[in-house]
Specification:
Length: 160
């Protein structure tokens, strides 16, 4: 269980801070919810406490792990970009994003950036790249305590 003030990651949405734990009635059902403010964008999400484990919530990484994230981004093009079938590539990347693992998300970012550089991206992949970048930014902003623009520049600088 998480507490107010904890910095957590909600897969597919990104990282943020738990601002409150409240009981709310939604569709006639009363439940306890984490009220989480995302660190990138001006959005709050309600996460049912009784579903939190199944959703893959986790603590943000620590500062010592940041170089590992950038090492993944600096790597060669990954398997996700090597798939020639758009549908298969999309599914592989989506599974990695849903995992909530920052290193897998970084792999998707790297694979899409490579594909963008080599062949260009479809509209769906452009949206995925934008989403993955936001997810990465949200966690790195919380961990490093820097502005979004600074982290965004770092991400671009680390992709070669």
């Amino acid at each position: 269980m998480f507490n107010i003030g904890d910095k957590i990651v909600y897969p597919m949405h990104g990282a943020g801070v738990i601002e409150a734990i409240e009981e709310k009635e939604v569709l006639g059902l009363k439940r306890q919810y984490y009220i989480m403010s995302l660190s990138v964008g001006d959005m709050k999400v309600m996460i049912p406490l009784d579903k939190a484990d199944g959703l893959g919530l986790r603590q943000v990484i620590n500062e010592e792990q940041i170089p590992e994230v950038y090492k993944v981004i600096q790597g060669e093009s990954g398997a996700g970009s090597a798939q020639s079938n758009w549908n298969r590539r999309y599914m592989v990347n989506m599974e990695k994003i849903k995992s909530g693992d920052i290193f897998e998300v970084a792999e998707v970012y790297r694979a899409l950036k490579w594909r963008e550089k080599e062949k260009g991206l479809s509209t769906g992949e452009k949206k995925m790249l934008e989403s993955v970048k936001k997810i990465l930014l949200s966690e790195l902003v919380l961990v490093q305590g820097m502005e979004v623009e600074e982290i965004s520049s770092e991400l671009e600088a680390n992709f070669k």
